[in-house]
Structures are given as structure tokens and as C-alpha cells.
Specification:
379 residues, alpha/beta, 16% strand, glycosyltransferase activity, transferase, membrane, Nucleotide-diphossugar_trans
Length: 379
């Protein structure tokens, strides 16, 4: 089964004159069972204002992906009061997000497609508009990814993610320079529509790592991406340890699924000693080490000095590495610099707890799932 098979089993329906869209760019925002949000109507107001701000350049399309909680009726009722707020489409039954995106992407005529999430704000889109002509002239360039920033939160878990996202952005800048970006985040990126449709035709259709898999398929097809630091995707992140671990189990499972489906491409990257190949090996080693750490400590036995020496070396080395990364791109942490040092000291401890639990959960789920009927098309 692929994303194309999922699309064939779903039905797309447009509301409020969806076929009258004429602009070069559209923003696709899928939603599934978001009706329980306290700020649900506030999110609809946000997209309405965004559509008004960019009415000459951008069509905004909300996609209901087979919701069962009444959120479809809420959006439909909202459009009854604000018929020109944005365009609205429904896909049924649920198409696992990527199927819904593919279904709509196949039906529109826009040259470029922005992908984002229902709970994400986009800031600085004018910078993207200024790049369109340059982008249009480059056939090998499939898209841009935006500056992903945690938004509207507080507490240690939120601060942890601020630092984590900052470190990820620094690494992404390096990968972008050498054309080895591993994932264009689904919360904020933009593709050429024709290329996105080609990618989706080869996509497994699974939800967990849909953005990572799409990026790897694009890389396999020979396309490059660029980073737009002036376009921000302000994303709402989990605010509790439990919610964050649940999210990371899904993300890590998506990583494992992508490596499984795109194993030929990953193996080519490793064989060629590319930056992405070496990054993949480093990821594999890091995951193995995290999961093996309790056994390593057990093997050491009751020798407290050896335990202390090992854990101290790991802690100091990791903090030093993170601090060095922040010095490479200091502007990436400007928004939370006053809280940087305290969280930097806590960061390895929180990360170890989250990564160990989340990777263990992801491997367990990966072992349970059956993937024989899924896979990318190598054509």
C-alpha cells in the first residue's frame, strides 16, 4: 500500500467555491478531531486574518481529515457566518494526514504549496513571496523549510524544547549548506506542487514520519531544499513530560519507518560517506548507546568511582557540545538567552529520560507493526 492507494479509497469534497482558487500559492492546513481545543474558534479566526492579510498572494485551505468529534460541523458553521474566511475541503474517511494532503494537492492548480499544522502560526511569509521568482527558475530546488520555534508555553518542559529546537536549527543550517537536510518539518515548509505530488505518489502513506519520509524521497529524486530563517513556524509544543514522551514515541517510530521504507537511499548515503550518511550512523550509535546505558552501568557493577567517571564525562561532554553549537549560531537562541545556562545544565538529564523512554516505546511499536503491505515506489 502507498499514499496513492489511500487516496483512491477516500472521497474529497469542496465547500465555499473551492474550485475558484486562482493564486500561485496555497497553504494546506489539515485537522483531525481538533474540536476539543479551547481556542478552536480562535484558530479559525487566525486563518481568516491570515487569508485577509495575503488575499492577493495566498489561498488558505483547511482540510478536515475525516473528523469524528464534531469539528467539521464547527468549521462548516463558522463558514456560514464568514463565507469568505478561507477555503474548506473534507476528506473521508480519515486518510492519515498525508493522504488528505495528497488528495487536495492533486486537485488544486497552485504552483507552490505551503504545509502547516492547525495549531501553528506562520510569521514572515512575505520573505517567502520574495523568493518565488528565484525558486521558480531552479528546477532542482523542491522547497523551503521555515524556522520552527516553540510558541506559547512555560515551565521546564517548554524551556527544554526551546533549547532543543534551537540546537536542531543550528544543525539544520549546516545540513542546508551541504544539501543534506534530513526532514522538512510538516509544521512549516513549502514545496513546488508538481514535485510534492511526485513525492506523495511514492510515499507509504503512514503518518508518524510523513515529513521525514517525504524529504528523503525528494532527496532520492535529486532535489534540494533551503532554509528560510525569516519565516517562522510558531508551533505549540507539549507542556508535560508525559505528553512530550508520547509525541517523541511517534516521532521516533516515524524515523524507524522512514529508514525501513527508504533503506536503499540511506544505505547509499552511508556507502558514499555523505554528511547525511554519517549523521544516520551517528544517530544509530546514539540510540544504541542510550538504550544500552543501563546495561553498561550494570556491567561496571558496584564500582561507584567508575559510574561517576563515566556519567560525569558524558554529562560534561554533552553540555560542552551543546554550548559550542550555540556559539556557532548565537542568534538562534536570542529569544530565551536569559534562561539558557540553567536549562543547558538540566538539558542532558531531561533528554536522557525522554530519549530512553521514547526510543524504547518506538522500537516496541515498530516490532509489533506489520509493514509488508507498505512501502515507497522506487521508480
Amino acid at each position: 500500500m502507498t499514499c496513492s492507494d489511500i487516496v483512491q479509497g477516500t472521497k474529497l469534497k469542496w465547500y465555499n467555491n473551492g474550485l475558484e482558487m486562482k493564486k500561485d500559492i496555497c497553504l494546506l492546513v489539515p485537522q483531525f478531531n481538533e474540536g476539543g481545543r479551547e481556542n478552536f474558534l480562535g484558530r479559525l479566526d487566525y486563518f481568516r486574518e491570515l487569508a485577509r492579510e495575503f488575499k492577493d498572494h495566498l489561498d488558505i485551505i483547511l482540510i478536515d481529515d475525516g473528523s469524528t468529534d464534531g469539528s467539521f460541523a464547527k468549521i462548516d458553521g463558522y463558514l456560514g457566518s464568514h463565507p469568505d474566511a478561507f477555503f474548506f475541503a473534507s476528506v473521508s474517511p480519515n486518510a492519515n494526514k498525508v493522504g488528505a494532503l495528497s488528495q487536495v494537492a492533486l486537485s488544486v492548480s497552485h504552483e507552490f504549496i505551503i504545509l502547516s499544522d492547525f495549531d501553528t502560526n506562520l510569521d514572515g511569509l512575505k520573505d517567502l513571496l520574495s523568493k518565488i521568482d528565484l525558486w521558480r527558475a531552479n528546477d532542482s530546488h523542491m522547497g523551503y523549510f521555515f524556522r520552527l520555534v516553540p510558541f506559547e508555553g512555560s515551565g521546564k518542559i517548554f524551556q527544554y524544547q526551546q533549547l532543543e529546537y534551537c540546537l536542531a536549527r543550528v544543525r539544520y543550517k549546516f545540513h542546508q549548506r551541504v544539501y543534506t537536510v534530513p526532514v522538512m518539518p510538516g509544521a512549516g515548509c513549502c514545496f513546488k506542487r508538481d514535485i510534492l505530488n511526485t513525492i506523495y505518489s511514492r510515499h507509504s502513506g503512514l503518518r508518524n514520519g510523513e515529513d521525514r519520509e517525504a524529504t528523503m524521497i525528494g532527496r532520492r529524486l535529486g532535489y534540494s531544499v533551503s532554509y528560510l530563517k525569516n519565516v517562522q513556524a510558531l508551533t505549540r509544543t507539549p507542556l508535560t513530560m508525559r505528553a512530550l514522551i508520547k509525541q517523541r514515541v511517534r516521532w521516533n517510530l516515524g524515523y524507524l519507518e522512514t529508514v525501513y521504507f527508504e533503506r536503499r537511499q540511506y544505505w547509499r548515503e552511508i556507502q558514499s560517506f555523505s554528511v547525511l550518511g554519517m549523521r544516520t550512523l551517528l544517530d544509530m550509535f546514539s540510540v544504541f548507546f542510550i538504550l544500552a546505558l543501563p546495561f553498561i552501568l550494570l556491567i561496571i557493577g558496584m564500582n561507584g568511582l567508575l559510574h561517576l567517571a563515566l556519567l560525569s564525562t558524558l554529562y560534561i561532554g554533552f553540555v560542552s557540545w551543546c554550548y559550542a553549537l550555540l556559539q556557532v549560531e548565537p542568534e538562534e537562541c536570542a529569544e530565551f538567552r536569559p534562561k539558557l545556562i540553567p536549562m543547558l545544565l538540566l538539558f542532558p538529564l531531561i533528554k536522557l529520560c525522554i530519549d530512553y523512554t521514547a526510543w524504547l516505546g518506538a522500537f516496541r511499536q515498530f516490532a509489533k507493526n506489520k509493514y509488508s503491505g507498505f512501502g515507497s515506489r522506487y521508480v
